[in-house]
Specification:
The structure is a single chain. The protein is of the alpha+beta class. The protein has a single domain (5-52, 67-350), classed as Neutral Protease Domain 2 (Neutral Protease, domain 2, Orthogonal Bundle). It has helices spanning 5-10, 18-25, 33-51, 100-120, 169-183, 191-213, 271-278, 280-293, 301-309, 319-334, 339-350; strands at 13-14, 54-59, 62-67, 73-81, 87-91, 132-138, 145-147, 152-154, 223-224, 239-240, 249-250, 254-255. A six-stranded mixed beta sheet has the order 1-7-8-6-4-5, with helices on one face. A hairpin with a 5-residue loop joins strand 4 (73-81) and strand 5. 52% of the residues are buried.
Length: 361
Amino acid sequence: MSADLSTLVAMVHGIVPPYLLARLAQAGAPRLQEAAQAAQHTLRRDDVRRAARLTLSVEGGALVAEVRDAPDRTISDAKHTDALPGTTVRREGEGPVQDVAVNEAYDGLGATFALYSEVYGRDSIDGKGLPLDGTVHYERDYDNAFWNGERMVFGDGDGQVFGRFTASVDVIGHELTHGVTQYTTGLVYKDQAGALNESISDVFGSLVLQYAARQTVAEASWLIGAGLFTPAVHGVALRSMKAPGTAYDDPVLGKDPQPATMAGYVHTTDDDGGVHTNSGIPNHAFYLVAARIGGHAWETAGRIWYDTLLAGMKPDTDFAGFAAHTLAAAVARYGEGSAEADAVRAGWSGVGVAIDGAGPR
């Protein structure tokens, strides 16, 4: 299976799984009527889209000019319409404004840029200084945030189940990482390759948050979208990488369906073959690798995963093929008998994925 660039660029990736929105859309309780209508509206809109830095210093009395990668951010306001990009409200280098969503989007884009630039030496999403554009206040009661191939777009939520989507730094990192995947592996958004696409975004979205907070593996929550739910929801986040399947258990939304291992792999045609569900398996593999290595996850486990993104894998790579690539990346950087390579082997074994003996493909 393959996809040309035009198809990849047109792809829209939303942080909220369609099965969760579908469950909310069917909510019958009077107190959730507005939230149910918001979910129905969001599903209709998402379905349509799926179809359709210079530093100066003085050294030894001499003026030294050093060019460093720096973000180029522009935040726009859709003013509760679907018109993109909207009205520009904050540009790179400008100070905070009164609109908290604008400031959160600006800071989240900057935090994502910082991880990729400072840790992995990548200049923005495409590696070539791509400007980072975001639009806030998209439509009314829009329960999602997405990367449309060109910019980040944020809904404000419905206020009953979901709050504003700019509030979660890892969600911003997640969505922008879909852009990194778009410009590197081009993993197709279907079945295991699609679940890997989602998982890679969860991995680096979590690392964006961890790097910004300078959290160790042990200090990190490993939750994706913590704080997106209002207090009315029985849940802490959209997903948990540490314990897939435990992020929420709510009378309206149901129970988090993510499996942690291949024993629970979900065979379905929904959600492009269960991409938001089965991503729990490679998510948990990464957590196990990071936990075994310890320290800061972005330094070693994240480096292995980033090297894997650049390894030239096929767009339809499955879990076993991706696992083989991560092992090859660990061996190439740290050595065959290294603790890092052993951690990768143990991580994938822990989720029931056998690394293909034929090597990366």
